[in-house]
Every structure is written in structure tokens, then in C-alpha cells.
Amino acid sequence: MDRRNLLPIGQFSQASGLSVTALRHYDASGVLVPAFVDPVSGYRYFRRDQVRTAQSIRALRQLDIPVEEVGRLLGGGEEALAAALRARLRAAERRLEVQRSVVHSLLCRLTEGAGMTHRVTVRQGPAERILVRGATVDNSGLEDFLRTAYQEMYEVAGRGPLTFTGPAFVRFHGVCDDENETLVEACLPFRPDGAQPTDLPEDMAVRELPANTLACTEVEGEVAAFPRILGGYDAVADWITEHGFAFAGPVRLVYRRWTGTPDHPDNRLEIAWPFDEPADEQGESR
Fold it and tell me: Which parts of the sequence belong to the HTH merR-type domain (predicted)?
């Protein structure tokens, strides 16, 4: 083979910025295969046009992308690679936003305490009949689920038509963030003695909620958007715990005023958590 247009692995390493050890690893994994391997010495040679590919591999690995995924991205064409990089950048920016909010929240708790930034009140929640649709999602799928769920639920409610008894709310049966998914229920409360929904889709139901006592705090504007809203949940949970009460059901997010845009300054949401007297060892409330 004519080796005049080939670079030995040492020179290729200098040109690409990848160590000889890394080049051997990428050869073994099939991500960057030499153009020629000397059958006697086993020495690797690369084409000059492989330098740019090697530089791209180096950059992708600097983004902590696994070797196997690097190979897939490079094999998918430039448009697919560009789309994947943009998606990764958006995810990185979101993680940074979450980290900033978490640090800010922790600093506030250290200097002021959660109760100083979120005033917790108590109100009585009446027994309610609700139209509900649920799904198991994490935070990345939450907005789309709620938008679709409420669109379909309002269509069903309009056929009644149902008479609403309060604002729409969401019930979270567990932690819903970027790392955890849980059952989330979109809820519409309506009058039990008026028109009733009919011909419900399979994933929609009518449910009865008992009267309860709720610990509440309100959040507005940017504070009502994820991840800053998590501070409100923490404040209510702290209040229930510190006062010796027991959690008595899924936490609610009540839409007191909602524009449709998560961080709009006019948004006003209420975090409302049912609580009760703690049960004694025999399972009875104090």
C-alpha cells in the first residue's frame, strides 16, 4: 500500500489531539478504524482526512458522551449530529438552571429559613367530586401531559356542561422531577348535584375526594415555575413535620391564576398538602 498519504499513529495523535492509547481504544471499539495496519509490525496508519473525524471524537468525549454513542452520532450524518448536540446543550442548560435554583434555595434556607420566604396557612378543603385523568410521568413530560389532559377534560366537561366548584388542580402521588417519575392526576372539581360527565375515555374517571385539612402556601411568577417552586413544597412539608402532623394524601398544585406560560409573572399557584393528626401505635389518630 502507498503510505505517502497516510499518517502513522504518532503523527496522527499529534494532529488530532488524541493520545495513542485512546486511538487504540477507538480502533478496538470500531469508532475510528485505521486506514491500514501493518501486518508485520501491527503499526496503525490513518488517512489525513480522518483527522477531522478524530477531532470531532475528542470534542464529543469532552462532553462526556459514551464511546458507543459517539460512534452512533458520527454515523448518523451531520444533520443528526447537529440536532443531537443542540438537544444536549438544552439539557445541559436546564441542568445548570436547576442547580442554580437549588443552590439559591439552600442559601435562602441557611440564611432565612423556608418559613421566611413561604408563608404557610391552613384551610379546610370540602368534599369534592372531580373529573380526573392520570399518568405516570417525570418532570420532562409533565407539561405536555397536563396540557393534553386538561384540553380533553374541558371538552368532556363542556358536553355536560359541568358546573365547576373551584379551580383546576394537580395531585402528585410522589416525587416528580428530572430523575423521578410518579403518578400525576389532572383534576377538575364539579358540582355533584348538577350535570354529570358521560362517555368518558378509558383514561378518564370521576372520583370522590373526602373533606380534609390543607397546609398551603402560594407562589407567583418565576417562583411558580420549576425548579424554584420546589422551595414551596419544601416549606409546606417542613411546616407539617415541625408541627407534628401526618401527611394525609397527595400534595396538590392549585391553579389560582394561570396564563399557560410556566414562568409568566401573572401566574399564581397554591401548594396545598392534606394533613391530619398522626396515628398512634394502634393506628388511631391522637
Answer: 6-76
